[in-house]
Automatic annotation (TrEMBL):
This is ABC transporter permease. GO terms for cellular component: plasma membrane. Residues 54-236 form the ABC transmembrane type-1 domain. PROSITE patterns: ABC_TM1 (PS50928). CDD domains: TM_PBP2. The chain crosses the membrane at residues 7-25, 58-79, 91-114, 120-140, 217-236. It is found in: Cell membrane. GO terms for biological process: transmembrane transport. The keyword Lipid biosynthesis does not apply. It is a multi-pass membrane protein. Keywords: Cell membrane, Membrane, Transmembrane, Transmembrane helix, Transport. Belongs to the binding-protein-dependent transport system permease family.
Length: 255
């Protein structure tokens, strides 16, 4: 039923979009109808150049997510477990977290350059925070009685971490990863568009909008990016339900 409702909503949106353009309320050159856009998508899927752009964006996203997880999960476990360290770093964390990643593009371009490293670095910066704060939140929500009971039986700290803390934190950490995955994809494509990368969906959209003014190609690239984001989120959500079906807190914390 969920799939049917989703498809019904999408179909209704596309029909309204098509009608608005066909009735002449919006110029087709400014907003091509979905029939034209999806025809372009079909053509692009067989184009080698566009395939390279999609692969470049997805690869940068995968690298950014791997780096974010490696950095944020251990840091979150440490900050969530050591109170004095969490309080000592609170000011710098709260200073850095609200800074928009796109505002750092000029600085990153100067320091790192305009290659793939730029979009990966900005995606890592943006996606670290949801994982970090969900992990800290999870550690704070662990029942102290469970930890004290394990200690009273002489359980070493490493065993407590693996058998008590991590099982409780895992669903929350996974929710942070799912949230960060969408943010990382947005930053990768946005940086490609704003910084003018050599490859990527954002670069394809930039070229289509600036050089040829092809709105059908712009919307086709945008739809492909949206579909990628949907598939990533849907896949991770389904994986989370399978891995943590025993957990009543389905969504975890928010960043």
């Amino acid at each position: 039923m969920r799939v049917v409702r989703n498809l019904t909503g999408v179909l209704g949106f596309l029909l309204i979009w098509e009608a608005i353009v066909r009735f002449g309320w919006v110029a087709q050159t400014d907003l091509p109808p979905p029939t034209v856009v999806f025809a372009r998508i079909g053509e692009l899927l067989g184009d080698t150049g566009f395939t390279r752009d999609v692969v470049a964006s997805v690869l940068a996203w995968l690298i950014a997510m791997a780096i974010s997880i490696v950095l944020a999960v251990p840091a979150g476990l440490m900050l969530g477990s050591v109170r004095w360290l969490r309080e000592a770093t609170r000011a710098i964390v709260e200073f850095l977290r609200p800074i928009p990643s796109v505002a750092l593009i000029p600085l990153v371009l100067i320091v790192i350059g305009g290659g793939p490293e730029a979009k990966i670095s900005l995606a890592v910066y943006a996606s670290v925070w949801p994982i970090l704060f969900n992990t800290i939140y999870a550690m704070a929500e662990v029942d102290p009685l469970l930890v004290e009971t394990a200690r009273s039986y002489g359980t070493p700290p490493s065993r407590i971490l693996g058998s008590v803390l991590l099982p409780h934190a895992a669903p929350f950490v996974f929710t942070g990863i799912r949230m960060a995955s969408a943010i990382a994809l947005i930053l990768v494509i946005s940086t490609e568009f704003l910084a003018g990368a050599k490859l990527g969906i954002g670069q394809f959209v930039l070229e289509a909008s600036s050089s040829s003014n092809r709105m059908d190609l712009v919307l086709a690239g945008t739809v492909v990016a949206g579909v990628l984001g949907f598939l990533v989120n849907e896949g991770l959500e389904r994986l989370g339900r399978r891995l943590f079906h025993w957990n009543s807190t389905d969504e975890g914390a928010t960043a």
